[in-house]
Amino acid sequence: MSKGLLLILSGPSGVGKGRIREQLLQEMPELIFAVSATTRAPRPGEIDGVHYYFLDESEFQRRVEAGDFVEWAEVYGNRYGTPGAPIRRWLEEGKEVILEKDVQGARTLRRVFPDGVLVFILPPSQEELWRRQEGRGTEGPGEMTVRRQAAGGEVASACWYDYLVVNDDLRRAVDKVKAIITAERCRATRCLGEVQNIDRA
Amino acid sequence: MSKGLLLILSGPSGVGKGRIREQLLQEMPELIFAVSATTRAPRPGEIDGVHYYFLDESEFQRRVEAGDFVEWAEVYGNRYGTPGAPIRRWLEEGKEVILEKDVQGARTLRRVFPDGVLVFILPPSQEELWRRQEGRGTEGPGEMTVRRQAAGGEVASACWYDYLVVNDDLRRAVDKVKAIITAERCRATRCLGEVQNIDRA
Predict the structure, then answer these.
(1) Residues of chain A with C-beta less than 8 angstroms from the C-beta of B125
(2) Do the Cβ atoms of B188 and A158 come closer than 8 Å?
(3) Is A182 in contact with B201 (Cβ distance < 8 A)?
(4) pLDDT (tens digit, 9 = 90+) per residue, A23-63?
(5) How close B52 comes to chain A (CA, Å)?
(6) Where along chain A do its domains lie?
(7) Complex ipTM > 0.85
(8) What is the pTM assigned to this prediction?
(9) Which architecture, in CATH terms, is A5-200?
């Protein structure tokens, strides 16, 4: 097991992963957010290199061919990729890394980083999820229908995650993810070095 | 996996398991403390049925023969046993049960309740553990030596636990165990029922 901790936040589109992740990063500044690359257009307020690396198709393709991404996928007509080298370096250095991934990407990352901790964010209900997706207002009606159809299957895939957190309330959901991070820091497989030091003392 | 949660707090004698457990029960009153039986004499302030069921040798032996204990062992010349029926009933009912066990007992319980969550409480150092054992002043010097010898091996056995918590500070240790309980409540294997309800919604 690598020294660091990789936390993968996932869940259906519109469930509120982004807001949970932002709040987590504020309250646990020791976490490193691993920024993904995408060919989709920035939403209002999104900053290149902070929320995503916004790349055009040809640059994205160049990086795919260079093997820069540990996973990449096309989702709703846009491509998303996870740069692997920085994550591997941080984990080697014992850092704690947080990733935000759609369900498809999280599934691939589980295979690339088997020690990664997968947290699935759930909506309190299917209706609430649709309401939130509409409320965001960043997608056209066609895209909405595609997202709605996908969300049913995505929720069903929660069974191969490590943890499930219902996002009924942002504060409660953030506190649960923080508890998961604290608990994972205490995992015997992660901190046996400490015990060996005590035995040698 | 049973509906409830069984948390087994363990660690070397004198490490402070009892104080952590007492604080936990105050702050999470939904937890049920599964009281063990013992043939040892009560320490000052200990109440029968609250801290232990204090039994004489013949009553303890009667219960051993009746199969009342899921595990029992002799530790430092006294016998300790864990009544099984109430724990099984609570877990069936979806309750959250906390047990405080020496290292030997915890090892047996791991086999009886494979879904149990084992938390090993560690001293910040071996010297600090000895200091705490002496500070308690409830054992004679001979018993102290036996406990000291055992503690080395007990700390080494931490590797087959789920979580390790260093008790350097009571507040910090309690917060870590609370985070572990919160995280375990979010475990996908424990709460998939919730997801199925969302899918049906």
Answers:
(1) 198, 201
(2) yes
(3) no
(4) 999 999 999 999 999 999 999 999 999 999 999 999 999 99
(5) 29
(6) 5-200
(7) no
(8) 0.82
(9) 3-Layer(aba) Sandwich (3.40)
